[in-house]
Specification:
Elements: E1 3-6, E2 18-22, E3 25-29, H1 52-58, H2 71-74, E4 87-90, H3 96-99, E5 111-113, H4 115-133, E6 154-156, E7 163-165, E8 168-174, E9 183-189, E10 192-196, H5 207-217, E11 222-226, H6 235-238, H7 243-256, E12 261-265, H8 270-282, E13 286-289, H9 291-300, E14 305-306, H10 311-319, E15 324-327, E16 346-350, H11 359-370, E17 375-377, H12 386-396, E18 400-404, E19 419-420, E20 429-430
Parallel strand pairs: 3-4, 4-5, 5-6, 10-11, 11-18, 12-15, 12-16, 13-14, 13-15, 16-17, 18-19
Antiparallel strand pairs: 1-2, 1-20, 2-3, 7-8, 8-9, 9-10
Helix pairs in contact: 4-9, 5-12, 7-8
The structure holds zinc ion.
Length: 432
């Protein structure tokens, strides 16, 4: 009989890993970097460079799954490495808590994902390579750790086209999250279907994709759904703004700002970035990107303008502040001393770094006060509200639902006849 087990995301947000097994065959859905289950590794205490996987496995901080990892990476742990030809990995999206351990997978094991996910992962490799060559190049992506191990070879899969693997048939469907290519999977097993949402929301740009996934998954034996917001009741989680509203607010600010605009965004929310670039262009502004951000976006395939803070460029901006929007990292903030800023300019915090509550965020606010720059915040979350999560369960009406990727799985309360089971780490649950 086929089984499902959970090797990450159990009682925590992130590090998702869903394993489906039958007759020695394995399909692993997601391979997120582990949040420390043991509490042994907390910054600045981290696994030793180059042997991170070994150091995590040794203390129970990485999934104990045989024939998944490269043999050299698990040497000395007692875990069987190298492919036995019966394991395949499928990735829902390119956030580190879903893809972060792929660098350790044995290269003979196929890793499938959306083409966009492969492109984002490639772009991160390019960022990592650039940082090796340029010492001033800061790896400011909070998710830089995903560059652990060797760059994985990801096989792009077409949407809604089943992949056969051993006794399984695995089909990818696009869903909506704040990164391109975000997908859910449906795995046909001999004992029934397992649907896995990955990270999901209904307030993004493509709620219809989520509906289509739910239709395809309707009546599944098992549903594994993320529940990030379940235990986190705030206005933002319960009534998130839509990406459309975010675009509208941004448009409004661009339309009414006469001076220079400064902005901070999340690199992987590429659809928002593309949308903001279009809006800026419409109002005669160019977004100028830091070299780290530009390297990433260019490697993904976008054409962008770079901010290099050269005297010639600063002169241009001084002459026409109304023609530019500068993307800033926390590192860049002191440049406001040399930029034409003041009451007519604006700093937009659009889900980027620094978070306003962090020490760097407080420092940012002092800089803005000192130079009389108004601060605007806008943005929305990548995760569905508790109501949206319940709605998706209702649409799919599985026999059993396992809430994952949440610290409050017990707050998922499905309508009968669906039964909710709070999963335990590493325990195998029969399907059907
Ligand atoms: Zn996640």
């Amino acid at each position: 009989m086929a089984t499902v087990s959970f090797w990450g995301g159990v009682g925590i947000t992130g590090s998702s890993k869903v394993l489906i097994e039958d007759q020695g065959w394995r399909v692993l859905l997601d391979m997120g970097l582990d949040r420390p289950q043991t509490d042994l590794y907390h910054h600045p205490v981290s696994p030793r460079p180059g042997q991170e996987l070994h150091d995590r496995l040794k203390v129970g901080d990485a999934p104990w799954i045989p024939h998944l990892f490269r043999k050299d990476a698990v040497a000395g742990t007692g875990l069987a490495g190298n492919s036995d030809g019966k394991t395949a990995v499928f990735i829902t999206h390119s956030h580190v808590d879903h893809i972060g351990l792929t660098g350790w997978i044995d290269p003979d094991i196929p890793i499938y994902a959306a083409p966009e996910t492969a492109r984002v992962r490639h772009a991160l490799t390019v960022v990592g390579e650039a940082a090796k060559k340029d010492p001033s190049f800061e790896l400011i992506f909070a998710e830089q750790v995903m560059l652990e191990g060797a760059p994985p070879h990801i096989i792009p899969t077409a949407e809604a086209q089943p992949v056969e693997f051993g006794p399984f048939q695995i089909t990818r469907y696009l869903v909506d999250h704040d990164v391109p290519g975000a997908s859910g999977y449906i795995v046909e097993t001999a004992s029934g279907r397992v649907a896995y949402t990955g990270d999901i929301r209904l307030h993004g740009r493509h709620p219809e994709w989520v509906k289509r996934f739910a239709q395809a998954a309707y009546g599944s034996e098992v549903l594994v759904i993320e529940g990030t917001t379940l235990g986190n009741k705030t206005r933002d989680t319960e009534h998130p703004a839509t990406e459309e509203q975010v675009d509208k607010t941004f448009t409004d600010i661009v339309e009414h700002t006469r001076g220079l605009m400064l902005i901070t965004l999340r690199p992987r929310n590429i659809e928002r970035i593309e949308s903001f670039m279009r809006i800026a262009e419409k109002f005669g502004r160019q977004i100028l990107w830091s070299k780290e951000f530009a390297t990433f976006l260019e490697a993904y395939g976008l054409k962008v303008w770079r901010m290099d803070y050269s005297p010639a460029q600063l002169k241009k901006i001084q002459a026409h502040p109304e023609r530019y929007i500068i993307q800033m990292w926390p590192r860049d903030i002191p440049w406001v001393m040399d930029l034409p800023v003041g009451k007519e300019s604006v700093f937009i915090q659009a889900d980027g770094d620094p978070k306003l509550t962090s020490p760097a965020g407080r420092s940012l606010q002092h800089w803005l006060q000192r130079y009389h720059i108004p601060l605007r915040t806008l943005g929305t979350r990548g995760h569905g509200s508790p109501e949206a999560i319940h709605k998706i369960v209702e649409w799919i009406r599985p026999k059993i639902v396992y809430p994952l990727h949440t610290h409050a799985p017990e707050l998922l309360l499905p309508e009968p006849p669906t039964i909710r089971i709070v999963p335990e780490y590493g325990r195998r649950y029969p399907i059907g």
